[in-house]
Amino acid sequence: MSLIGSNFETPPHPIGDDDLDVSKVPHGHGRLAAPNVRHARLSIEENTLLSRGRKAAGQTAEWLLRRQENDGHWRGALEGDCILESEYIIVLAWAGKLGHPNAKRCAQRIQRQQLSSGGWSIYPGGPVDVSASVKA
Q: Is the overall model pTM greater than 0.70, yes or no?
């Protein structure tokens, strides 16, 4: 629910147990207290959440812009499962170049990514995944 254009009311006095009694009508208002209290609480919670969300989005954008290269691209470590390495080894084998130094380095990386349980995960720190393990 967007707060833009909202006109939630704040309670006319500090919120107490009596405000939750729907049979009571607050002074100077022609409606029940409970909906006003509920809406005021939602307004405060949503406003805080919206504010935190905007702050997080701004910080994320700043973080990305600080790391962007002059020509507009970003460079970072590729982290994931070992599918790239295993498929590269397959391509080298198909091309008759299995003795290439890259094949050995890829195999070593695959071994380093193996979990103590014997399988592989899809992402660093993840649980064993059957698909990633088969590809390895």
A: no
The one-digit pLDDT tens for each residue of the chain (136 residues) are: 444 444 444 445 555 555 444 455 445 444 444 455 555 565 666 678 888 888 899 999 999 999 999 898 888 877 778 888 999 999 999 999 999 999 999 999 999 989 999 999 988 888 998 888 888 7
Tokens 């405000």 belong to 19
Q: How far apart are CA 114 and CA 89, in angstroms?
A: 17
Report CA-CA distances (Å) from 41 to 15, 53, 68, 96, 103.
10, 18, 41, 69, 61
Supply angle C-alpha 5, 9, 10, rounded to 5.
Answer: 130
Rounded distance, CA 129 to CA 119, Å? 7
Rounded to the nearest 5°, which phi and psi values hold at 11?
Answer: -65, 150
Give 128's strand partners: 121
**DSSP notation for 75-86:** -----S-SHHHH
